[in-house]
Amino acid sequence: MKRIYSLLIFLLALGFGAKAQNSVHVQVYVVDMNNQPVPFWHVYFNAYGDQNFNINNILGTNGTGVIDTMFSYPSGLNDLLIFVSTRGCD
Description:
Layout: E1 3-7, E2 23-31, E3 41-49, E4 53-60, E5 66-72, E6 80-89
């Protein structure tokens, strides 16, 4: 069974008003039980927060088992939750 080794390695600061960059950088590493990277694995990504903010997407790992993505959020967002789970193999 595959597992998500690490998620949300780096989160840009939220809550700095107009000075915030309004983006979040997310890295997810998918490895097998032997800690080996799992290339081309589907991962379900869901992020939501206040102000009706909601992102749902299925992303795939690259050849080294990593998803590296960034998404924007609206100014004034106070709460942000991110869930990541595995889906299946190509």
